[in-house]
Design brief:
CATH superfamily of the largest domain: Enolase-like C-terminal domain
Bound molecules: D-gluconic acid, magnesium ion
Number of domains: 2
CATH architecture of the largest domain: Alpha-Beta Barrel
Distance between the termini: 47 Å
CATH topology of the largest domain: TIM Barrel
CATH class of the largest domain: Alpha Beta
Order of helices and strands: EEEHHHHEHEEHHEHEHEHEHEHEHEEHEE
Number of strands: 16
Structural class: alpha/beta
Length: 403
């Protein structure tokens, strides 16, 4: 058996913080898993170092399922983003090892390729509708077949999704949370205007997406969904906070705009009602925050029998390790929908050498054995952890709201 002899957590900040678990077997084969939880990185690092790693040493690296069950059931305290990110890191590192030992790219172990490559969506954004459309035109010229549109809201000093840098978006912008201001009344009329302008400029042969980032009530989300229908959006994301899954019944009754939810979910239980009742069209759970490949297989299976497709979260705060693992999953999963792709900075890309490549609006995970992503430890050590927090959001009268 390939016995686990070493495991360690590497925290690095090549432009932003990433937490990586590296597991090594007695034959010297190693696997890596992403454990990054934006704004709460050190909590997962400690969970792994203090509570998980000591239990891994000496185990058979091939027993992925048994180790997953041990970490999930064995903790007694089930679920939660910290626990599930830690479990995901172990799970992905072990799948990486198994595929390397088999001499196969990971997607072959999952069941082989179901498609030639993985359609991704990029992020066009700007302070005004005109700037956002210019960006979207540039994305189309880069070959993207699907583009997310976010724009500044007149009367609000800053808005979720509008970045300082092009190609990257980094909301964790200060050591302590910065404060944003929000007005749903100002936002709601802006988005249909953005989509109208986008269809005019981009035509019909491109998918357009939008993220409401948990800011609407169900009836407001229903209104927005209806208003966007003439422009045939690919999806409206996180229309309303999803702790109360039944909220989506109301949205569903009123609009045919497809709905996507799940980047903050960490287990199948967060999505069960949404999927069972076919209240959503795309499930956005990630490999890193929802228990790894082993658990996402279960979520995707439930989704498949309910006509829900995958549309995994792929923001810059998920490391290239997560992206690599997600791409193998996407290439295999029968009910694939789309993959989010926010590019990493060049600095991040060199710390995490990777086999995946972008071409014609799609990514391919490559043919390297394992998931094809590694970490350059010497380079990683040059970028020490820097505290960074996600912003908070207040209404114009000061009431704390959803960011
Ligand atoms: C997305 C997400 C991100 C999150 C970020 C938080 O759709 O990509 O909403 O932009 O805000 O991942 O850490
Ligand atoms: Mg989102």
């Amino acid at each position: 058996m390939p016995k686990i002899t070493d495991a360690k957590v590497i925290v690095t900040c090549p432009g932003r913080n990433f937490v990586t678990l590296k597991i090594t077997t007695e034959d010297g084969v190693h696997g890596v898993g992403d454990a990054t939880l934006n704004g709460r990185e050190l909590a997962v690092a400690s969970y792994l170092t203090d509570h998980v790693i000591p239990t891994l040493i000496g185990r058979d690296a091939h027993q992925i399922e048994d180790i997953w069950q041990f970490l999930y059931r064995g903790a007694y305290w089930r679920r939660g983003p910290v626990t599930m990110s830690a479990i995901a890191a172990v799970d992905v590192a072990l799948w990486d090892i198994k595929a390397k030992l088999a001499g196969l790219p990971l997607y072959q172990l999952l069941g082989g390729a179901s498609r030639s490559d993985v359609m991704v969506y990029g992020h066009a954004n700007g302070a005004t509708i005109e700037q956002t459309i210019d960006e979207a035109v540039a994305y189309k010229a880069m070959g993207y077949k699907a583009i997310r549109l976010q724009t500044g809201v007149p009367g609000l000093p800053s808005t979720y999704g509008v970045s300082k840098d092009k190609l990257f978006y980094e909301p964790a912008d200060a050591a302590l949370p910065t404060e944003n201001v929000w007005s749903t009344a100002k936002y709601l009329p802006t988005v249909p205007k953005l989509f109208e302008a986008a269809r005019k400029a981009l035509g019909d042969d491109v998918h357009l997406l939008h993220d409401a980032h948990h800011r609407l009530t169900p009836i407001e989300a229903a209104r927005l969904g209806k208003d966007l229908e003439p422009y045939r959006p690919f999806w409206l994301e996180d229309a309303t906070p999803a702790e109360n899954q039944a909220s989506f019944r109301l949205i569903r009754q009123h609009t045919t705009t497809p709905l996507a939810v799940g980047e903050v979910f960490n287990s199948i239980w967060d999505a069960k009602q949404l999927i069972d009742e076919q209240l959503i069209d795309y499930i956005r759970t990630t490999i890193v925050h929802a228990g790894g490949i082993s658990h996402l297989k279960r979520i995707a299976g439930l989704a498949e029998i309910n006509n829900v497709k995958t549309g995994f979260h792929g923001a810059t705060d998920l490391s290239p390790v997560c992206m690599g693992a997600a791409l193998h999953f996407d290439l295999w999963v029968p009910n694939f929908g789309i993959q989010e792709y926010m590019r990493h900075t060049a600095q991040t890309d060199v710390v995490f050498p990777h086999a995946y490549t972008f071409k014609d609006g799609a990514l391919h995970p490559g043919e390297a054995p394992g998931h094809g992503v590694d970490i350059d430890e010497a380079l990683a050590a040059k970028y020490p952890y820097r505290p960074a927090s996600l912003p908070v959001n207040r209404l114009e009268d000061g009431t704390l709201f959803n960011w």
